[in-house]
Amino acid sequence: MGNCLQRRGKLVESDPAPYTVARPQQPPWQQQQQYQQPPLQQQQQYQQPQHVHKIPATPPRQPQQPPTVSTVKSPPPRFMASPKPAEPRTVAMGGVLGKPLVDIRQTYTIGRELGRGQFGVTHLCTKKATGELFACKSIAKRKLANKDDIQDVRREIQIMTHLKGQPNIVEMKEAFEDRHDVHLVMELCAGGELFDRIIAKGHYSERAAAAVFRTIIQVVHTCHSMGVMHRDLKPENFLLLSKEENAPLKATDFGLSVFIEKGKVYRDIVGSAYYVAPEVLRRNYGPEADVWSAGVILYILLSGVPPFWAESERGIFDNILKGHIDFESPPWPSISDGAKDVVKRMLKQDPKDRLMAQQVLNHPWVKEDGEAPDRPIDNAVLTRMKQFRAMNKLKKVALKVIAESLSEEEIVGLKEMFASMDTDNSGTITLEELKIGLARQGTRISDTEVKQLMEAADVDGNGTIDYIEFITATLNMNRVEREDHVYAAFQYFDKDNSGYITREELEEALIKYGMGDEETIKDIIAEVDTDNDGRINYDEFGAMMRKGNPEGKRRDLDIGF
């Protein structure tokens, strides 16, 4: 998900902007000791041999001949260099880790790319000696622009070493530095992100959500009890160790984490927009900010949307500071009081009033075999499809235009879901495949409802859902409301760039989808043309596109639900 607040550079106190980004400060006691090369071994002092060939005291002098060479060698200097095999060589030292430079490829085979971030790339790697698979996070040294950046890398390694052995935290195996990168070899989490697993299951009950959340808040408690504040808790930073059903969940990415100093007030703004605590925005926070972030994750686990949303980061921050949380819109009326109580007490504006991690673990709804009911939470995919069914036909085509323009990165989760339902690899989903796919994901609906969903998604009416129709039907509402997407869709219909969609232009566009009949066009214009001039302008088109979104300002977060 985007909206990352991480920035590099020092805080400029004179900056009037309320959300200036600062660098995490490095406590003096965390300084990495510089590697010191051990002194060369001193060679033992030469001792004169006891038996020496005697030379005559008065040899005849023969100026014409070279002097006779003695069979006895002069003593070597006290610090003569060692024999060649043991001769010390100059070792290139790394400027980040302060250790000798090492070629990681001597120990590991670097494989395919797993992910990419601001400072580096993560690859699959294989240990040559054992064949074990790991993840190698390579941080480009050229992107470490100053001492603060270097200290951040050192601190991340220190913290991961400190947390080594904790069951729900990704373990760092070793670190290398070569001339171009710093390499962190870590435990491989091959099961993917937490929310990808939720997509695959299709739904969660409150009890299942409580079990997942229990692991998340346990990680927070572990970090705090060991003196670490994570500062970037979000769903993407929780990975499953394997694809097994009961694979453990692991926390990762400690790049923004710091050691907690007693009595210290932290003032740098770091984290990701949806999850950042209000006191972080006010530049006066401590470990309680992690509890807030975990509370936001729980809110999303229960509802599929974040508690604070806006079109921009600034708007998100404003809503966080206002602190209004919606517990009235669906699915909250059907969520248990215990679940709502946990969320409310974790998202208190004043960090002093907020539950601590240990208190959250002891809450009756969170505890194992606690009061969390085994009642299914609304299926997010089903909800989107039902929402989509209520849209008019023009909006369906407009959404299809938007769907065709989205990048692979934007729809990767939906692409995987489509592939799982398309069991015969035909490139389309039939009514039977949709029914089986929804059932496999835990969605219990009648045959009539499945047919209604098929009818809603099947834009061209051929009895199957193709890839673009599926992506269109499950588009997140925040995608719909992006101005650039809406305008691009409007231009698709407005062929002559007149600023209006005429009846003829509408017919030309809709006929491609088998919807260009006179009755359909008449219905569309009657619904969308609010000023009754017989054509659709951009304002009318935009209003139509935004119509039907949940609660206007509350839209689905693009997490692949």
From TrEMBL:
Any Pfam family the entry gives:
EF-hand_7
Q: InterPro entries this protein is in?
A: CDPK_Ser/Thr_kinases (IPR050205), EF-hand-dom_pair (IPR011992), EF_Hand_1_Ca_BS (IPR018247), EF_hand_dom (IPR002048), Kinase-like_dom_sf (IPR011009), Prot_kinase_dom (IPR000719), Protein_kinase_ATP_BS (IPR017441), Ser/Thr_kinase_AS (IPR008271)
Where is ATP bound in this sequence? Answer: K141
The kind of enzyme this is, by top-level EC class, is: transferase
Q: Identify the keywords attached in UniProt to this record, alphabetized.
A: ATP-binding, Calcium, Kinase, Metal-binding, Nucleotide-binding, Repeat, Serine/threonine-protein kinase, Transferase
- Which GO molecular function annotations are given, in alphabetical order? ATP binding; calcium ion binding; protein serine/threonine kinase activity
Q: Which reaction does it catalyse?
A: L-seryl-[protein] + ATP = O-phospho-L-seryl-[protein] + ADP + H(+); L-threonyl-[protein] + ATP = O-phospho-L-threonyl-[protein] + ADP + H(+)
Q: Which domain of life is it from?
A: Eukaryota
Keyword Acyltransferase assigned to the entry: answer is no
| Enzyme Commission code(s) on record | 2.7.11.1
Matches recorded under SUPFAM superfamilies? beta-sandwich domain of Sec23/24, EF-hand, Protein kinase-like (PK-like)
- Enumerate the spans annotated as EF-hand domain: 409-444, 445-480, 481-516, 517-551
Stretches assigned to the Protein kinase domain: 108-366
Q: List the biased-composition ranges (Low complexity).
A: 28-50
Stretches the record annotates as Disordered: 1-92
Matches recorded under PANTHER family: SERINE/THREONINE-PROTEIN KINASE (PTHR24349)
Per the record, the similarity remark reads: Belongs to the protein kinase superfamily. Ser/Thr protein kinase family. CDPK subfamily.
Q: What is this protein called?
A: non-specific serine/threonine protein kinase
Which organism does this record belong to?
A: Wollemia nobilis
